[in-house]
Amino acid sequence: MSLPDGSVRSAYETLAQWLKTVPEGMLATRSREAEALFRRIGITFAVYGDAEATERLIPFDVIPRVITRPEWTTLSVGLTQRVRAINAFLADIYSKREILRAGVVPEDLIYRNPAFRPEMNNQKVPHDIYVMIAGIDIVRIDADTFYVLEDNARTPSGVSYMLENREVMIRLFPDLVAQHRIAPVENYTDDLLATLKSVAPTSSSSDPTCVLLTPGLFNSAYYEHTFLADKLGVELVEGRDLFVKADVVYMRTTQGPKRVDVIYRRLDDDFLDPLVFRPDSALGVPGLMSAYHAGNVTLANAVGTGVADDKAVYSYMPEIVKFYLGEEPVLKNVPTWRCREQEHLTYVLDNLKDLVVKEVHGSGGYGMLIGPKASSGEIELFREKLKVDPENFIAQPTLALSTCPTLVEEGIAPRHVDLRPFVLTGRDKVRIVPGGLTRVALKEGSLVVNSSQGGGTKDTWVLDQ
């Protein structure tokens, strides 16, 4: 919120003045009211392996994060560029593989990647779009520059919290909201539905049928699945609600079978079709991949997009952008050492106490080492892991992530944040709702913002002026 000289950034001037006038205890009261609202609505997420509780509320911070319109414009251009490059990369590695032949990305990084799906080789996807819904994690480590921390091209989550956070802020702080010209986020679901319909197979009707495929009630993001299906006005289905006949997907309804054209799937590749992937999957639809390969149904996102989520592949994204688009990346990567390369591994082993080490396929803040916060025992344990399986890890500097004012027990204090904007790619256009999900590390000094690791969320305001 503040510049190095202590003055308030222009975007935060109104908010800063408002905070000075807030009666003592009012923010804490509003925070409790927000928690009560979220609990009444049922906004929870599951924590696998948690012995104390299967579901939790994600903590919500009542002080918004503010982004200026020029900042958002730069972000939008960079996000659009990055997702275009990711789509081109995925189309290439499942067909001509020109980037591999050119030696830009190592072949073994793709072929030995557990997220690479040989079943997609030379299989055309509708309209050549692999990633219709992307969540790109953004961090800020200096005053003027945004960096990409991570790409989420499989089944990015969190958009329901973005929408509900805004709704709660409008209800609890109407006076503060009225003092700002905030770009709306509520049209996200309209944009998502338009995107899904635009990528329906060419054989579909003029009004294609879309469904949202969920693993079911016990999935950690089930609330979001039900929320989005309701907002989109589409059926929420499980695998048992669908069947395939003559390479066409149908949904069981009380009026009889109904053809399905687009499946927004929140189900991992492994469980989609027991005839192709895991034979023990009871969550998928037998024959789904046959219908998919026949071009009779669109899966959003496409099968095999997880390769682009890999943190080692992430380290090549600047080269990927240049290779396919012939452009310099608008959004920079965080400097990354690939432990699969001996020179990088040597450096990482010599500097573990200063680095963040991550599993290349890890997520949710698990399986990582934050060197400056780790004990000597934890560092030595990771050292052995790196020596045994260096290809499974990358390392990055410990970032001085930007902070935002956050309500904590002691009052208002700075806490580290990141931002997950959601990028929708349809046949006709790219759509990005101004804002996204700001995640905040609520523990003092913590750099881990994931909800499963004790992080919370904030409303994100893009000033529409």
What does the model show?
The protein is an alpha+beta fold and 465 residues long. The chain has helices at residues 13-21, 26-41, 69-93, 98-101, 107-111, 159-172, 174-178, 188-198, 222-232, 288-293, 311-314, 317-325, 342-350, 376-388; strands at 45-46, 55-56, 60-67, 133-140, 146-152, 210-213, 235-237, 242-245, 248-251, 258-259, 262-265, 298-300, 332-333, 337-338, 355-359, 368-370, 393-397, 403-408, 411-420, 422-425, 430-432, 437-440, 456-462. It has a 5-stranded mixed beta sheet with strand order 3-23-22-19-18. β15 and β16 (368-370) form a beta hairpin. The relative contact order is 0.17. The model has no long low-confidence stretch (mean pLDDT 91). It comes from Phreatobacter aquaticus.
Question: Tags for this entry?
Answer:
globular, alpha+beta, 14 helices, 5-stranded mixed sheet, 2 domains, 30% helix, Dna Ligase, domain 1, single chain
Task: Provide a compact summary of the structure.
The chain is of the alpha+beta class.
Roughly how much helix do the residues carry, as a percent range? 25-40%
Q: List low-confidence stretches.
A: none
Q: What's the rounded overall pLDDT mean? A: 91
Number of domains: 2
Note the gap between the termini.
18 Å
Instruction: Give a count of the beta strands, DSSP E runs of length 2 or more.
Output: 23
Number of helices: 14
InterPro entries: ATP-dep_Glu-Cys_Ligase-2 (IPR051680), CP_ATPgrasp_2 (IPR025841), UCP005522 (IPR016450)
Protein name: Circularly permuted type 2 ATP-grasp protein
Domain Circularly permuted ATP-grasp type: 64-441
Pfam families: CP_ATPgrasp_2
